[in-house]
Amino acid sequence: MKVIICENEVQQRKFLQSVIFNYAMFSEPSIEVVLSASQPEEVLAYLQDHRADCYFLDIELGSSISGMDLASIIREQDPLANIIFITMHADKLKLTFKYKLAALDFIVKDVEPEKLTQQVKEALQASFAKYQQLGNSYRSKFFQIKIGERIKNINLDDIYYLETSAQVHKIGLHEKNGCYEFYGKLKELENLDERFYRCHKSYIVNLQHVKYIDKKNRKLTMANDEVCYVSTRMIKELQSKIAKLNSIVQNTG
Amino acid sequence: MNIRPGFKHAAVIIGLIGIPTVSFYFLITEWAGLVYLFVSAACVFYSYTKTPRVLLDLFMLAIAGIISKSLIQSFRFSIFSAETPVVIWASIGLYLLCFAFAVWLYCIFIKKIWNSILIPVAGQLLIITIACITVTVLYMNLFISLSNNLYSLAMFNLVIEIIYFILMFILSVILLRNNKKENLLKQKEAEQEQLFQYMQALEQINKDMQSFRHDYQNILLTMQGYITQNDMEGLKTYFNDHIVKVEERVLQNNYVLNQLENIKLVELKGLLSTKVLLGGEANIHFNIEVPDKILAVDMNILDLTRMLGILVDNAVEAAIDSEDRQLNLALLQKTDGSMLIVVENRIGMESLNIEQLFTAGYSTKGKDRGTGLATVRKIVNQYSNITMNTSSENGIFVHEIEINAVVPKRKKFLFSTESKAFSR
């Protein structure tokens, strides 16, 4: 994993470099610092014919280009880059970083060196984990929703059901920790995974989370006590699918 | 009518209206007499009073007359079949009574209405026109129904239908226009209210500053006390506890208001500044991020403020219960014109059922509280360009609302030109 640092204070830059170097030596040898710049222009020049995976950017660069501008340029070129901000006052624009620039993490400068080291290490770990995920084709197990520039990965296991909304082309997704809305059509989502089944013209349910089938009223109770509908024609197939899924789980588990 | 009936007036009325009408009625034709009666009466009364209301009064009298006549007639024919003189006299008496009653009702009504509400000239003219047409139609109906000419009857019906259709059309256009104006006014009112709140917020900050200034001297004196005693430790704690904290709060408030500067929608600005102040009073660390200028949002501004108000109120209440009392709010504008609103706060609870939060009547705060989020959901569902995400993870509760820019539809455009053409 290639790392770029951009920090105008010499001392800070050296400190960062050494922390990353140490971490690479002892934990992940594949991490290397390819550029340690004091000016954002250097980074831009480097990026013209190279690329990197992880960026540590100071926000107050003391140049005409701020860390934020630099980040948005990087983001334009490489939507998958991991950007980690280093800042004096972290929480001031936290949400902006997260949603507009899809920043991975923020490191607050004015703390004790040990704490700073710890923060840098954690950020590196997170970045490396994400880098590895990209390599393995893990992505099929997640459902991705884009919120602003931020991409949210939702584990398919956690999804209870998908439903059409009151407005056309808007789909509601209900999962363990929240509910989301996005634009699309249920038809395009029918073949998400073998666990999902379209049991009604406006519902796709996760068979793992069906708690109870009320055949008389054609209703399904999900694991979170939400109610979905099922059409008469689909009840039989739904039951057989659930049975099949359960047998697979039992065999493998 | 404020005419004092005198002998001269009576003579004029009889001379100009009474005698010619009777002679027209019996010598030429019946309808000529009636027409003359109306025209001359209108002219005479108008020359006396000089107000157009006289015309309306006259027409109303005529309408009252014809309605009471029909009423008495139908009453008479349904009960007595024979036309004895007693019956005729009784019905004439009843007719006069009924007519007087109608006139009396009209007098009361017009007295209350006419002076208390200022009706524009156009409106007055319209009302008079309607009354005039109605009288004409009623009296023509009287004569036409007596004649047996089917062709004239059909023509008459056609004319009536067309006239009333046009009238109805004009009235509904006026009604729609007024409705539109009213809505605009309501919106302006809300805007005014929010602006007022924003001003209050500014005032409050100014007061904070002033009170700080006021304490300034006391602070200096206390510090001097520490210095003369050479109590460095005491000075340090005093400085950190009293000066840094107060300064921080003032700075924070200033910072937040600076962020609000970027919002060019007065309603939104007003709402948020009030909420920031309220949050400050509840000792909540309220952090607002508005990195870009916000000039317009593709949703009804009243809906937006209502929705945001509910979300922020909820977040403030939750933040009060939580440990670090933090609330983050961001309004982010993308280059394509869409906007993202993020409301984030910490919650005390480890997990909660997100679905239930949106059901009306459910609340984590006890009974009779849970309509807020259900209302938000209802608003979001009204728009096809808005999506809302709600989630909680690691004790952080987040609402994300994305408002996409809408390309103006051709349909809408057509409608607006049409309505303009109508109003002209």
UniProtKB/TrEMBL annotation, chain A:
<feature type="domain" description="Response regulatory">
    <location>
        <begin position="2"/>
        <end position="124"/>
    </location>
</feature>
<feature type="modified residue" description="4-aspartylphosphate">
    <location>
        <position position="58"/>
    </location>
</feature>
<dbReference type="InterPro" id="IPR046947">
    <property type="entry name" value="LytR-like"/>
</dbReference>
<protein>
    <submittedName>
        <fullName>Two-component system, AgrA family, response regulator AgrA</fullName>
    </submittedName>
</protein>
<dbReference type="GO" id="GO:0000156">
    <property type="term" value="F:phosphorelay response regulator activity"/>
</dbReference>
<dbReference type="Pfam" id="PF04397">
    <property type="entry name" value="LytTR"/>
</dbReference>
<dbReference type="InterPro" id="IPR011006">
    <property type="entry name" value="CheY-like_superfamily"/>
</dbReference>
<dbReference type="GO" id="GO:0003677">
    <property type="term" value="F:DNA binding"/>
</dbReference>
<keyword id="KW-0902">Two-component regulatory system</keyword>
<keyword id="KW-0597">Phosphoprotein</keyword>
<dbReference type="InterPro" id="IPR007492">
    <property type="entry name" value="LytTR_DNA-bd_dom"/>
</dbReference>
<keyword id="KW-0010">Activator</keyword>
<feature type="domain" description="HTH LytTR-type">
    <location>
        <begin position="143"/>
        <end position="244"/>
    </location>
</feature>
<dbReference type="InterPro" id="IPR001789">
    <property type="entry name" value="Sig_transdc_resp-reg_receiver"/>
</dbReference>
<keyword id="KW-0963">Cytoplasm</keyword>
<dbReference type="Pfam" id="PF00072">
    <property type="entry name" value="Response_reg"/>
</dbReference>
<comment type="function">
    <text>Required for high-level post-exponential phase expression of a series of secreted proteins.</text>
</comment>
UniProtKB/TrEMBL annotation, chain B:
<keyword id="KW-0418">Kinase</keyword>
<feature type="transmembrane region" description="Helical">
    <location>
        <begin position="31"/>
        <end position="48"/>
    </location>
</feature>
<dbReference type="Pfam" id="PF14501">
    <property type="entry name" value="HATPase_c_5"/>
</dbReference>
<feature type="transmembrane region" description="Helical">
    <location>
        <begin position="121"/>
        <end position="144"/>
    </location>
</feature>
<feature type="domain" description="Sensor histidine kinase NatK-like C-terminal">
    <location>
        <begin position="299"/>
        <end position="403"/>
    </location>
</feature>
<protein>
    <submittedName>
        <fullName>Two-component system, AgrA family, sensor histidine kinase AgrC</fullName>
    </submittedName>
</protein>
<feature type="coiled-coil region">
    <location>
        <begin position="181"/>
        <end position="208"/>
    </location>
</feature>
<feature type="transmembrane region" description="Helical">
    <location>
        <begin position="55"/>
        <end position="75"/>
    </location>
</feature>
<feature type="transmembrane region" description="Helical">
    <location>
        <begin position="150"/>
        <end position="176"/>
    </location>
</feature>
<dbReference type="InterPro" id="IPR032834">
    <property type="entry name" value="NatK-like_C"/>
</dbReference>
<keyword id="KW-0812">Transmembrane</keyword>
<feature type="transmembrane region" description="Helical">
    <location>
        <begin position="87"/>
        <end position="109"/>
    </location>
</feature>
<feature type="transmembrane region" description="Helical">
    <location>
        <begin position="7"/>
        <end position="25"/>
    </location>
</feature>
<dbReference type="GO" id="GO:0042802">
    <property type="term" value="F:identical protein binding"/>
</dbReference>
<keyword id="KW-0472">Membrane</keyword>
<dbReference type="InterPro" id="IPR036890">
    <property type="entry name" value="HATPase_C_sf"/>
</dbReference>
<keyword id="KW-1133">Transmembrane helix</keyword>
<keyword id="KW-0808">Transferase</keyword>
<dbReference type="GO" id="GO:0016301">
    <property type="term" value="F:kinase activity"/>
</dbReference>
<keyword id="KW-0175">Coiled coil</keyword>
